[in-house]
Each structure stands twice: as C-alpha cells, then as structure tokens.
C-alpha cells in the first residue's frame, strides 16, 4: 500500500534506465522522504524526552538533508507488486502480499545515509567469508521442495532438464543435517535448517567455494549466504566476461565468488575450451578457477560449450554468469565537480574488450554517491588536467586513477571502549570458531597478536545502546587518488555489480530499515505520536521519556497494590512494552489530571460514532448483516476507516487551532477536521442515530437509500439498518431514578466527566415527560455537551456565549482576494515552459535547449508547445503554456493575467552555497511548506496567524468589514492575530452548510433549545479542547442560521458540472460566497481554496494534464460568472503551490519535490500580459539557482509576489504591510508593487 501511495512501486535505478533507454532518470524520492518524516525519525533531532535539540544559534537541528533523501531513494528501487492470485479481493493488482524485488532494476551502488553512515556499514566483507562457509556453524538453508531453482539467487527462470545439480551424498554430514532423519531413517524435512555446528566436507563439497541449491534425496534446499558487503574499490582486480552478453564486461575482486571457471584445454586454442563447473550456475573465487584450469583461463573470444546444456539454447541455461580471465582490470573514480560525488568506472584491458564495459561501470555512468573526502579535493577538481592520474570527463567530472590503502585503526595492546569502536570502525567481521575472545569491560576482542597487540584483522564484539550486538573489524580502507594525498573512505554496498542476487537486495532493504528504526530519534518521535493517538494531545517530556525508554529497552514495569508486572520481551522496539507505558502511565490514568485544562484531547470523529454505537448497544436489524456507513462519511465528519486522502492521514500532529490551544502553544491534531460543516454534520448524524437508528435520514450517517425516510419517526429504529438498544439498569418515576439514569449515561458516554450542572439540565429535560422518549432526550443532550467530545473536564461560567456578530458592509466598492493553493506541489515548469530563446548559458545552451536536456521525458514536446505567449525582459521572447490551459493563455493575451516566475519560499537571500545556513523553513516537506505558504511568516514574528487573516486584521482596523473564508478545509491562512479585532474565519463545505439539528415532522423536542446552555462560556480552568469544540459549534450554528438562506438566494449564470467536484464544486461555491457578500455584511473578503492533487511522483505529464484540465474548467467558470455578475474588476485570484518540482525525471516518469515554481494572478484589475520576476536563464547544474536535480532556488519570494495584492485590497501603510508580511524586507527579493501588477480603477 505504501509503495502505491508513495510511488516507489515499479521504480528503477538510474543505471537501469540509462542502460535500457539512454535516458537520465533518478530514483523516486517520495517514500524515502515520507518514511523518515512521518513514520520514523521526524524532521528535527530530539532528546529522549521528545524536546528538540537546538544548535548554537537556537535553531532546531535537522535529522536529515535532501542529500540523504536522494541516497535513500536509491534503496527503494526495483520493487514490484506480486502477481495476482486467488483468494484476494482485488482484480487488477495485488496489494496483499509482500512485494518482490527485481534485482536487475535495483540500484546496486553505495548509499550514504544520515550521520554519514553507508547502508551496509557494520556488516562483514564478503571477501572475508570463511572457506566453504556453507558448512560452518550458523549456515542457513531454506526448503525449496521439488524445484531446484534457487529463489534468492539470480538463476534463470527455466533450467534445462539435464542441467547439473549439486546432489549431496547420503554419507555427507551436510546431508545428515538437512535430511534430519527420524527413527525410521526417513528424512524429516524442515522449512529452515540452521547448522548448529561446523561440519566437514565430503567429496564434491570439498571442491566448491559456495553452493546455491542442493539435492537431499530428491528434495532441494537453497543455501542462504549470510549478509555481507563489498568494498566499492579494490586493488588487483581481474576482468570477468559474461557467458552470453559480451557487452557486460566488468572488473571483480579476485577474493570473491564472482564468476565461473572457463578453461583452455590446449594452450589458447579456443575450440577446445570448456567450463569447469561442479553444478549449474556455480561461482568460484579466482584462485579456484586458476586451480581448475591448469592450461590457462579463457579470454574474450572463446566460445566454450556448456555441458550438458546446448549453448545455442540460451533460455534453458542462461544465468547471467561471468567467467574469470587472468587479465588485470583497474578501477577509476569519476568525480562530479559540483557535488564531490563519485561514480565507479571499470577499465578492462583491450584483450577482453574494453569497449564492452557494463553500463553500470562504464565511463559514461550516471550513478554517483557521496563519499567522505580527506584532503583538498577542490584542488584536484579545479586542476583536473594538471593531475597526472586524472583527466576531464563528461558530466562536468574528473576521472581519476585510484588505489586502495588498508590498515588498522587501533594499535598497541590497549583495547578501545565500545563508544570508540562504534564511532571509528565501519567494517564488520565474521568470528571463526577457532578464534578465542579476550574480554575487557564491555568489549570482547578477537584475533589479537601473539603479544596481545591489535592487528588489522582483529575484531571487537560490543553491544550498543539499543541492545544490538556488533562485531567490528579493526580495519580502515581508504581510496586514494593516485599521486596525491587526497582520499575517501572506501564505501560499501550489498549487491554484486556484476551478479546481483535478490538475497542481497533483501539484505540491503533490511539494513535501510535499520537506519530508520535504530536512529536515536525514532523512539522519542514515535512515542510522541503514539501518545497523541492513544492518550493525550500534549504528552509531557516525562511521559514521552517513559515511553521512549520502554521502546528502547523493550521492558516496562508497572506496579500497583504492591504487585509489579513486567511487560515486553526486552528487545528494542517491543510494542507491548511501549503501549503498556502509554496506557498505564499516570498521565493516561490519573483522573485528577482531567481537571488540567491542557490535559486530554479532542475525540476523533469516527471514534465518537463507533463509541456511541458500542456504549449504547447498537444492534443490526434483520435482514442486515453488517454496518453500512455513508460512502461520503469522511467528507461529512472528517474521518472514515480505510479512506485517508494521503499518507498524512486525517490529522496533523502539530496542528494548532485558533483560540486557547494555539495561544497556549499546544497541539490538537483532531482539531484539523474540526470545522463548522463537519461539526454540524457529525452532530446531526449522531442525533439521527439516536432518534431513528442508522440510516441516511435527517442527516444520518447510514448508507444512502436503504430506507424510506418518510416513514421514520423518533424512537422507531426497527426499519433502519440497526439501532441503539441501551436501557438503564434501573428506570422508575422517582427523581432518584432519573439521576441514576443520567449518571449511567454520563459514565457510558463521557467516562463520568459530565459536570453536575449539565447533569441537572439533562435530568430536568428527562423528567419533563418520561413517557415521551425521555431516554432519547437525555442521550441527545449528552451528545450535544462538550464533555462528549473531549477527554477532560469542562468548567462553565454562568453566562451564555456571545453570538458571533454579523458584519455591516461599508458604502464602498467590494473587493475579494482569492488565494488558491494547488495541493501537492505543481510541476510549474510544464505550466510555463521556454519556447523561443536566444541567450545561452556558460555551457552554450539557450533556455529551451537546457529545458529539454534537463526535463528529457518530462518536457513538453514540440507538438505540446502550441499555446504561445510573448514576454519581455526574460531569457526567452516567447513561452509556451501547457496545452490544457487555454484559459490562462487567453487571459494572458487579453491582459488580465500575469505570471510570477520562479517564485517560492525565501527566508533570506539564498545562493547555492549558503541556502542550507540561511533557510529556516523545512524545504521539500509538504506539510511544512504548505504551512509556510499559508502563513508567510518564516521567522514566526506573528505566531499562529496566516497571511489572509492578517490582511483582514489590517482592513478591520481601518473600519473595513473583512471576512476570511475557507472552502472545505481549516487553515491557518485565514487566522488573524489581533484580540478583539480578528474575526473567526468562516468555513464552508463544497455543499454549503447543513441546518443544525433538523427535526422530523411531528417532533416536539428540539435539542437546539438546550445547546446554548450546554455550551456556556467557560472559565480559564476549563478544558481548552472543550472550549475549542464549543466555540466552533456556536460559530457553526450561527453561520448555519444565516448562510444557507443567503446561498439559496444566489442565482448563478453558469452551468456547473458535477465532475470533477473538487474543481467545479469549489468554483461554484466560491462564486456563491462572493455573491453573498451583502447578506454577510462584508465589503472585503479573503478566500482560501485548497485544490486538487498535484504531487506527481509517477506519470507526471499524464497526472498534470488531468489536474490542469480540471483547474482550467473551474477558473473559466469563475471568470464567466464574475463577468456576468459585474464583479470581475472586484476580484483578484492568486494561484500558487507549496513548492515547484524537480526538473529532472525519476524512474517512474514523475518529478519529485522541488523549490521554486511559477504562480499567476488574474482578475479584472490585473495589468496582465506580463511575466514578473526572473525566469532563470541557467537551469542546469552549475547555474546560479540549481541546487541539484533541477531544484531551483526561487528568484522571487511569496512576499514579493503578494505585496501588490495586499496593496490592492487596501493595505497601504508600511507598518501594516510589515504586519501582513513580516519578512518582506528579509527575503532578499524585490517586491512587485501595485502599479507593477494592477490597474487603478
């Protein structure tokens, strides 16, 4: 599911795409980013108690950089869904079974992650595998059955029936272990066999270096070699030549089991050469091949027959194997100037075909990885041709000869401590049975010299703070640029570059996950998130530390009544211990804390619905066999099982709703979906459930059309899908009995938190006429009380809340600023693309040529660049607008739309050299960048406020009547920050606002009569979450009494289709809201819309075209409506997105998270037909704005773009502009003023 949602399914390595298609594409970064940000480490380094770690400047320290993400992304290539099978519901895909890895499409090169650690650091080297390691203690075998095809090796899909297998002799010790014969001497085959001792070889076993699958009495086992890694560079390489495809020649470390033995029978006469194999697909070390081939090894031209397979029938015995040659093969480092990253280049000799080197290690390789340089690498890169061992190469690189130098890290007889070992030793070690250990404190040392001194082959066994055992080799391997003192640590990788096996891809995936799982941040980060979901919204540092400690130690001890219970296995990450710590801690259990106004949380909408059904004993009616909810339940209440819209789920962990939660710097994730429309819909559905059972009647949450709503009546639940069947344990006519009933309901529905005054109010309603559905009345009123919706206590004042006031429009022309955010990051360089360009960059390419070189398969083709616009003072005289945007083309040419080129978040003036240091914002993270776009306040000078809310504040202070409005979603963008001045934002769904608590014909009881009393004003000691709920409800009720009528009185001139509802529905509601401005008493509106799904990591061109069609239709309808209503000159629309995208493609034909992009504004007052700002003239790597992969530093800031719109709305004073955009002087970008962008009317 994650592979599908986060787009790494079907991803391919850069090398795979380059070799097959000749196209440059990068690994999709989506999953690599989100698995860290959302599910493991988070963005900022944390202490064990969950508090942020800050640097010397007081800024939070980041966990990872975008360079880390680029490297981790390569670890998520090659994944594919399993084939469809029976016994699963989906008919088009398999989202049930674990994914399979295509090792040929996977990136095989080194990957450096966080803390400058390679994936594979700490693992032993494959070159150090013990002799005949398949016989040593711990060797693992997995049962295959009747097929000899090894599943974890790169074997052919079909073998010739006569292909030679490795058949164990019955006398073999290995046979005995795998057969596992019982008393009757019949083999008892186990699914997995692990050798409990090292066994001696017998017969053919003594002639091989390694085995793949073995036959044990006709049943096959596959040998699972232990995980190990390869050094990327080595000395004394030998050329290996493919058995079939001769254009894949590589070098190999002669110490590895990397190729087969191809022997010459008579000198160099190729006609009599043969392969010396003990079994099909055997791999040997170079020394073994030499031993077998007494007359010499084959070279490039030999065509040895492979017995018993016919070498012309490749499908039967083709296995991608190579054979050893005795020819030396050297390695070079291809160093990229701009980044210092390195690629591996193999240089086989001409005798074996130097022009047929494998793509992955050819001189034109496109895969590069980070290294840790020692010495002045820049001196080499800036004078490449002056270094005898180096020369210029393509990709703006320097190609250098290298050698490998190895030595020991620690010397002498002093044993280092475990911290020194883990910090300085990166290579793991096997521990042979004949090594004895010497213990010193918490370290066990092996293979010391005769005098007790440390050697390069010495090894240390230690246990880290997470309880993991490490065995590290006392060795350092450095790669040195020949003839210089410049070097880098020799990187490691799991998969063989020549012979990649699925087994090693699995090992690498496990190691990648370990990077995340064992990161120091994971325990406190997950502890905080778990506590928010299962306990309280704002866990204390003490609480988080308790949970994190249980997570790390795998133990939690709970003592009560003198008895101690231990939870957990003692292993790192034990969830039993973790959740025991969450649920049994005093912050989760102590009822006294319910009186703390900041304790507790808002309940999740679905939890309230399901909880009510369970506590009040919901039962299905015949003939229904399962609960069926409204298919649009998520849209109605904000949450539904299996219906998340993105991996960010329903709630944002750091969400701060306006009011007491934000003022207290607290968090309330569930408030993210707490809007006027969702509150009313949720309550109406609960009221309907109580009165009529589960149906869609009168706002119910049941499946639409199941019953005839004309037949429902209060208390008659037998015709619905099911109903609540709760009856109190004791019912009588005495007042004592009514108190017992209310107390019982309070316990069931609010965990006993219902206040005394609320119980009295409900009891009086219950006692008024107990024969007239008294119990239902009590349930309805309890649901309407804030205690039902929060998990701490409410302390009411004696006063009712002030009803939200309605504004009074001033006698002045109306204006509306519409702020549209295209959610997910629009690929704006395909919205506005170069077309006719003359100036060239330092590499001699004009902008269109650069665009095509960078974008490649993502670029608009010549046939797609048909909507042409003219431009001045830009690097192109003409630009092309995306073919799906005729609206934009027309308005631009009519002079009513302008672009802002390469605009984005700028905290300060940034360059490719300093952007890391001067940028505080979390670039490339969806939620953080959307927050920045909504706030326009990167340095938090106006906390918890948004750009539209502050515009309204400034206008309200000048006696304008301004209303901030959001369609569908709550957002900080519309939140103001001046107490007594700021107005509560109006939130309206696409469908408008439902009436609150409608009653069916003939009903006499109306819950609306009690709501004000139940939701009275609260004291400072009352729940901040309850206050947030009641305030939202009161606002929603007031809006529901006024706005539906105003909306229904609007007459639109355009016909709005229902598809796509995301665009046309919101466009229709936008027009309606603007046309209700007089009824709402507003002369200034600022309106926020979040539109679409623009995160196109896969098939960008297809996805972008679809979204642009919907957007174009919606904007065209809005324009036509405003012109028909005579309001066109009174509205300005700004269309933005949280960030742009990479110019370069990923291997799924998508683009990844970028930085700068293009935005546009339009309206009747816009001085259009212009491209404001600087469309970058050099977008290639090495240019002044490209920080890698075509991520471009913005040349204009959001503040510079929005200044003119803020002025157009009527905010003119410098101080007011500073309040609206606190960083407008700090972004380093020149602002565009009113006269630049607008026409005065």
Automatic annotation (TrEMBL):
Pfam families: DUF1501 (PF07394), DUF1800 (PF08811). InterPro entries: Alkaline_phosphatase_core_sf, DUF1501, DUF1800. SUPFAM superfamilies: Alkaline phosphatase-like. PANTHER family: BLL7424 PROTEIN (PTHR43737), DUF1501 DOMAIN-CONTAINING PROTEIN (PTHR43737:SF1). This is DUF1501 domain-containing protein. The lineage of its organism: Eukaryota, Sar, Stramenopiles, Ochrophyta, Bacillariophyta.
